[in-house]
């Protein structure tokens, strides 16, 4: 049997279990989403070029702001770093491939379907999601268009993809390091990605919980986020930001890792304080779980909560 | 353009220059980049902390980036410098952990004091209930029997560019909230439908209006004037069109205004039984419709397919008047059609129901009187 990738274009890219090919797919997908999200941003800026309404109606404008946020966060930034991880991590730790190559393929191929479904809502009756990328209830439940159900399903799919990608990275780093590649010898990019992967595994299910509660409120008569039924709209924000704040670090930590590789390389000297960088990154990840409500300072929390979240944030 | 750019630049460079130059008009506030110092204890405390933090950040930024620039410039490769290969220094690492920690502690002290001030909502002189609606504010003077809606006054023509934009474009309302000077006013803030946020930068007040929950904020100022803010929580299509306008009046003037408002309420109660003519109701109804209904159901009554149903040729608008009134009074559960019983008066509900039944080719032809609405309410 011949070596190397399949010569058939479709079987090479659709059925690939090669970490570099999948990394390439992730990076191209991310770039495509970057252009799409960027296009949405251009629509927003074109409308805002002058005060008043010129080009689009308010109902389309809010769909653009929402879709821009969702596409950029879940479609452009996160897949870009998973793509880099797929390419670099096996090579950096001396592994022949990722630990779970078929799951790697699956976790990528979920994404195009999730985003096709999400974007398709723009062409449906009632329009796309129009409640901002933070989709606060009850604007995203009682007052949302019916297409919100597609949005919820899309978020579930993205979450499943992220969790699979993260498990793959954790399994690879834990099991497939070359002999002599101890944890404290790993390049910092690998470290930041392992920590990011743990964050993802911890918080994506929380996001899934939030959208599932929305789904229940919308379709099955529950009142998680409806005060009239004994629920609480503020609960949504607590659950969302318990995901949302670590998400900030999910996005930034791999970038820190990239910077920590590039700068030492081009300044021709070893990284200063490698071990404290590793500990600092781990501490940031831990702290990111206990400061979520600083996104909610105006919501009217009790003073004790407000003070705690202020101090913890500092 | 240049003038605006210059004003922005000045605002950025010396935040206090605009304030020193004279009184803060609403106009200057819109063009100023820095946060306003405001007119209440809370807003001034927030401003002072903000300035301390900005300066701390500026000093640190200049030192760190200055050092980096110097190092990169002085030790560049073209000067033949070779990289030093040391990579651990415990003393330096401990130092740059402890110094920021100390700076943080220093910053935490004024921040705590200011936050305690924000939460000091006890012993108010006046209580005002603020309710966020899609997309307007309602103000109720608790214990005074005075309650009104504060809605955007800017016309659709200005917004859509069919008429020149006025001086207070999107920063003007039908009835501003009026409060007196030198009284502690407590705002009890809640929402009716989705979450809104009531923001008056000059008071240092920003509080979410959450349906089913009350939050409190307060203001006390000795400076009369008009203070403008916005809704600051995305609340749907009209989010940009529900400004907050507060007028602070001298106490005597305020008392006079309040007495006038009470009289108005009494007068209204006595005229509710008046018989209106078909055309009077159409005129009044069109006005109310433009203000309260057209945002969703559109000026032509055709709604937005899949989101907001059309009223033109709708079975409700063409059916019995009682059912039509019922929709406005009770709303439609589980949809964005809210109850208008608290938002619109009986006269307004009657007029708008009448208008919807007889506009855009709907021609039921009956007359809906305010008394019908009152009877409907009482029969509930």
Overview of this protein structure:
The complex is a heterodimer of chains A (314) and B (380). Chain A has one domain (15-313): Cytochrome c oxidase-like, subunit I domain (Cytochrome C Oxidase, Chain A, Up-down Bundle). Chain A contains 9 helices and no strands. Chain A has helices spanning 9-14, 19-48, 58-93, 101-120, 148-175, 188-219, 233-266, 274-287, 303-313. In chain A, α2 (19-48) runs antiparallel to α3 (58-93), α3 runs parallel beside α5 and α3 crosses α7 (233-266). Chain B is α+β, with helices and mostly antiparallel strands. Chain B contains 13 helices and 10 strands. Chain B has helices at 2-13, 17-21, 26-31, 41-74, 90-118, 156-159, 251-270, 278-292, 294-297, 315-318, 321-330, 346-358, 370-379; strands at residues 126-133, 136-141, 146-150, 177-180, 185-191, 196-200, 205-209, 215-219, 225-229, 244-249. In chain B, the strands form 3 sheets. Chain B has a 5-stranded mixed beta sheet with strand order 3-2-1-5-8. In chain B, α4 (41-74) runs antiparallel to α5 (90-118), α8 packs across α12 and α11 packs across α13 (370-379). At the A-B interface, α3, α8 and α9 of A face α5 and β7 of B.
Helical coverage of chain B, percent range? 40-55%
Biggest beta-sheet profile of chain A: none
Helix content of chain A: 55-70%
Please give the oligomerization state of what you see: heterodimer
> How is the main sheet of chain B built?
5 strands, mixed
Global geometry of chain B = elongated
CATH homologous superfamily of chain A?
Cytochrome c oxidase-like, subunit I domain
> Uncertain runs of chain A with pLDDT below 50, 5 residues or more?
none
Which CATH C-level class of the largest domain in chain B is it? Mainly Beta
